[in-house]
């Protein structure tokens, strides 16, 4: 199999919605459009879901990208807006500083990443879909591999994630428990799993989206809410995917890691060691 670039194997996907974020953390729409433009330059064939806050001039400058209009009130989670607003108004402690509590629309969008991947499968026939945040490019050290030969091995895996291993084992030591509920508690906004970029196989996306929807429903019925990092961590360990991806900081990016490491060996480390410790 000849692989010329990442886009021969993987379909990148992102989303941009105007949620007046500047009022919460100072990041302006202009900031994000600039970062989005640079992210598109990293992934020219990217699918961008947006609420028409991306104007026609911007779209015309990125001809290779696919822009799909999607209103926030069309997202399944939006039907739960009232519950999310109620939970966000409760005095819940230090975790309330996270943006998912300050801005319910933001929480709905970031917790819809699996749903966005599901939409993207209708527009691309590729077997793998990589989520990247619209602001991916603002991390200046990130680089994109131009010849990811290791992608030929992806057929063995259903998912690839970055894990903050220090955070994982720190929580294991603190809580002295293997329970998911203990080491990544709902409401803690614990960043054990990275949400900025991850990859799912096409056939896994419906299962992941369905499991996440059930988790969200359970949370909201119990008046709980949290970041997508916590939600996805719970879902992935529940599904026990083929691979949960540990990020090695000596490489500049997840993609560079793909190039330089043999993935089968790491699959043994990540799946059989890490997941067996936290899902048993």
Q: State mean pLDDT (0 to 100 scale).
A: 74
**What Rg, in angstroms, do the CA atoms define?**
18 Å
Strands, count: 6
Strand content: 5-15%
What is the CATH C-level name?
A: Alpha Beta
Write the element-wise H/E pattern from the N-terminal end onward: EHHEHEHHHHEEHHEHHHH
Percent helix: 40-55%
Largest sheet: 6 strands, mixed
Mass-distribution shape? globular
How would you explain this protein's 3D organization?
The chain is an alpha/beta fold and 280 residues long. The chain has a single domain (6-279), classed as Spore Coat Polysaccharide Biosynthesis Protein SpsA, Chain A. Helix content is 42%, strand content 10%. The chain has 13 helices and 6 strands. Strands 3-2-1-4-6-5 form a 6-stranded mixed sheet, sandwiched between helices. α3 (56-60) links the parallel β2 (47-50) and β3.
Structure characteristics:
single chain, Spore Coat Polysaccharide Biosynthesis Protein SpsA, Chain A, alpha/beta, 280 residues, 13 helices, globular, disordered C terminus
In short:
The protein has 280 residues and is an alpha/beta fold. It has helices at residues 22-25, 29-42, 56-60, 81-88, 99-102, 104-110, 113-120, 165-175, 180-183, 205-221, 228-239, 254-260, 263-279; strands at 10-16, 47-50, 66-69, 128-132, 159-160, 197-201. Helices cover 42% and strands 10% of the residues.
